[in-house]
Amino acid sequence: MPSGTHGHHLFVVLNDPRPLPGYGNNPHVVLVNLSTVREGVMHDATCVLPKGCHAFVKQESFVYYRGARIESVDHVQRLVRQGVFKPHDPIPAEIVAEIKAGLKRSPFAKREFKGLRI
User: Fold this and answer.
1) Of 3, 41, 86, 90, which is least surrounded by CB within 10 A?
2) Residue 39, in any domain of the structure
């Protein structure tokens, strides 16, 4: 998905689509993106993933919990159809579980995400 000043980032969908508290009856998903760890630049060390853990991950990367977002499934599917979002192979389930656990631990994640059951 286009993101930030460095082009595209891999966003990870953390839940099966479903209604989320405070977002109405339509199905929504929680998304977090992976960002490259850069020497001398502070990053959230809650969940750091090694290069090669997914075909898209070419360098050591961290989960950018501060930028976690909730999107409607309709919105995500529309942007996929328009070619703005480009689907990739799934991340292994054990890594998704690690990312989800980090969402509750990260000092940078917004409070609304810490209480979500996803």
Assistant:
1) 41
2) yes
9: Cβ–Cβ under 8 A, 6 or more apart, which residues?
1, 3, 33, 34, 35, 64
Residue 42 lies in a domain: yes
Checking if the pLDDT of 4 tops 70, the result is: no
CA dihedral 57, 61, 65, 70 (to 10 degrees): -10
Does the residue 5 lie in any domain?
A: no
Q: How many domains does the chain have?
A: 1
CA 13 to chain centre: 6
What is the spatial distance between Cα 103 and Cα 109, in angstroms, rounded to a whole number?
Answer: 6
pLDDT tens digits for range 61-104: 999 999 999 999 999 999 999 988 889 999 999 999 999 999 99
116, part of any domain: no
